[in-house]
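Suppose you are handed a protein chain with no further information: no name, no annotation, nothing but its sequence. What can you learn? This example shows the usual starting point.
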Amino acid sequence: MHVRRSSRLLVTGLPLIGVAAVVALAAAQNPEAPGDPLIAGFKSTYAASVSDAVELVTGKNGTMRYDMKQMTGTNLVGRAVTALARPAPAEQATPALSVKHSVEIIDDAKPGEVGVIVMEGTLDIAAMGNLMATAAVERGMAGMVLDGAIRDLWDVRRMGLTVYARSKSPRTAVGHYATVAKNVPVECAGVTVRPGDIIVADEDGVVVVPQDRAADVLKQAQAIDQRESGMYPFIREFKSLQKAIAKFNRI
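A reasonable first move is to predict its three-dimensional structure. Written in structure tokens, the prediction is:
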């Protein structure tokens, strides 16, 4: 479920064409790409380009806070399914209730989806560990994004599941937190994530693409990529970044 950067290199070498044609090329080069054409398209670009594109298209920031980091795995693209957890008294934070909705979004997940779990108000308690990771792998999920901690990291890494999280901690949610909702809008590391929004993540960070503007954002990200593909040889030829910025209006 990883992004193949070779697809991007081929795409940016072409004239800027329609989203459908680029998606078809990416899908042909990446047989693991889901049937969702927008997902296939976003797999051919970078989080940085998508971050810029979201701001240009929507006028709002779509990039999660700096501490949302890649803990294990690789690049990540997929549609979000969400769960929200809040502090709860011990009697309401049983093993079943502490992760009820988080478990449900995993057990109900379609292949290629991204689980987004928010532990409201804490980075010290784990949103998931190796049991939930095992289920996510078996469901074919693309990965997880956690506004909270990950635990059992050694084992999750061994499984090959991609996880982005704001922290890591061995501390359990049992006795402290309970999930309260699933597939609702959540505030994850400073950005609203709605079910069906597209998550694009790599080593730079995690970007949320609103699903109702996804086609426009993809087109803008591809335009950014194409412009940059012309800047590299220009910089090498003229040995001047200032001239490149003046010519391409891009940095």
